[in-house]
Amino acid sequence: MKFGKKLKHQIQESLPGWRDKFLSYNDLKKLVRLISSSPVVLNGNSGKVEAEFVYLLNNEIDKFNAFFMEQEENFIIRNEELQQRIKKVTDTWEPNGSQPSNTIYEDEVGQLRKDIVDFHGEMVLLVNYSNINYTGLAKILKKYDKRTGSLLRLPFIQKILEQPFLTTDLISKLVKECESTINAVFPVEEEEERKREVKEAITVAGEGIFRNTVAALLTMQEIRKGSSTYSQYSLPPINLPVDSDLIQLVQLNPPTAIF
Amino acid sequence: MEARPAIRRSAAKQLSHMGVSGALSSSLPVLQPSSEETYPKLQDTQQVSMERPVAQAGHLTSNSGVVGHIFSSPSRFSTDLHYSSVSPREKQSRNNPFILQSLSSVSMPLPHSSPSGVFQSTASCAYSKENNGSWGTDSLPGFLDFPVNTPVENSQIESSSCSGILAAEDISKQNDWQEWANQLITDDDALTSNWSDLLVDNNVTDLEPKVPKPSLNFSAQQSQVSQQQPASSREIIPAPSREIIPAPSREILPVQSEDIIAVTTPSSANSAAAKPRMRWTPELHEAFVEAVNQLGGSERATPKGVLKLMKVEGLTIYHVKSHLQKYRTARYRPESSEGSLEKKLTPIEEMTSLDLKTGIEITEALRLQMEVQKRLHEQLEIQRNLQLRIEEQGKYLQMMFEKQCKSGGDKLNASSSSLDDPSAQPSVAMQVSPDKSELEPSKVEHGEIEADAVKSKVTSVECAEERIGKQKSPETEAPKDCEPDVCMSSSQPPKRPKIKE
User: What ipTM does the predicted assembly reach?
Assistant: First the structure.
């Protein structure tokens, strides 16, 4: 599959509010093709064309930045709110809490778990969003350089890497924090038992974030599978040894929502 | 508000237009003449419709002068700012969005570099860009001194002129700004008709999204660019603006029942519209929450109060307002769900018998989801690190290549020996190859082209480049004797290895 298709697929699987925030890869690709055949460029007068191209790319980058920072802000708020909820639930309704009630606890914790996992998922998807847009931009720049013979790619990429939408450290940190807090709310189970449950669980898993995450992983795997223009700027194929079971499982049993 | 969706659509078409209509080459020459035409028009317009023509025209001309100046100054992205693009509106001043855009792109790196991640933005457009010192707070009070009967014009002009300098945030906002700029800069008729429209009360809602967006973006960008005079200009604006702009602000106020701090940052019902790009951090949020709690909770706290309590420099009431809104929404749902818990108990109890198994399944499903998510995150991190390293490598190679080109033959040997040294590049290369060996080797057959890590004796940078390129392939073979490789690779520089699976 070509990147354009993969990106499209990824966009389709993504959360509704995100769909128009991705890179307009195909449009830019068409543009590059157009540029390369435009008389302006062929006459060697590519300065203005380049400026215009850069302008459009900057538009895209602005779009990414704005979306990313808004999501980041939302995540920060949600993170704090979830922490408070966890605290409240464990303090109030847990057996050792102030108003121990197993039913309420179970219910609250159930909802809480779901929310935390979804929260984690959304954050990871945001990182994926950044990544896939970066990949797209890099590809577009490469095409541009190839077609017009200019050297836009390298300096531009350096600038891009400094942009807010690619400085995902905070989000990654939140993700890791989330992973550790989740142990506080999930019951500890036996490994064997878990594997048994997994197959059933797949059919229970809902749509939305889960599908999106799986799609993202698969897309990533495919994008890195190999290309005809392998260069020093290409990434090696993805390594998902442990996941192969997981992913195969998911591929064979596509999750269907029961809610 | 229908303007915005229309603009969005046309903006979305923009890119496809670019590709399809071939406007690219033809549109560029339009730029210069149009920009030259527009500036005198700007002045005329101002004189006709404004009560204080001279000063304002002067300011605005200087604004246009700034714009013109910006045209010629190189941006960070080393673009020639003389680009145009398809305006969603039509023929008019296509230069403007570009200016905005380039300026926004110029200023983009700045917020990221600002200390403590606090967005150094203010509510005024009195900031001057680096290469243009003429816009000072003097221009702003001038605007604000407009007589009362031109409130709309005042805000419009101010925001448009302000936004004339800096950029909108995304395509839709940018196009709104464009609207403004077009209105301002192009013919009188359009402008006065717009103003007369705006003066009508029932168009205030139209005004509202327009006015905030460009000006907010402007102020956002402004402050990104220059972090001077925050306090003073902020103070200058609030008092007069509230007096001077009775009609529109009164309309706006009920929408957001908070203070309007400035003409340039009126509250906006649509928080997605004009959002200065502020980057919130957990620490900042903690301070925010504390302030909110001190004020009695998210419902009772006001943005102004929170802003005062937080005492964070550069934080505007607008930031606080939008953040507070988000905060309230985030808290509302869990609170309401807990409140209705008692009611939920009954249906839950009914489910308990079935619930046991389902509960476990659900937990398992969640676990699975978590696993996949964790995996994705890991892979993303790995991928990102690789990408960063690849770019670093590329940068290094570029440097090397340039050095190579400069010095010619003599340096060839020097560079080759430097490659042998355990210096940055080889060490990076070393780091890269262990990474690759960790990754599953693909079934790549490079045949005669072998990757060699560090000890290669290269005779040209090109060979080196090729070599590093090959090395990047997931090759886990031990470094081989490079001598034959050198000949091989140098004989096939243009070829790229194909990956066979």
Answer: 0.82
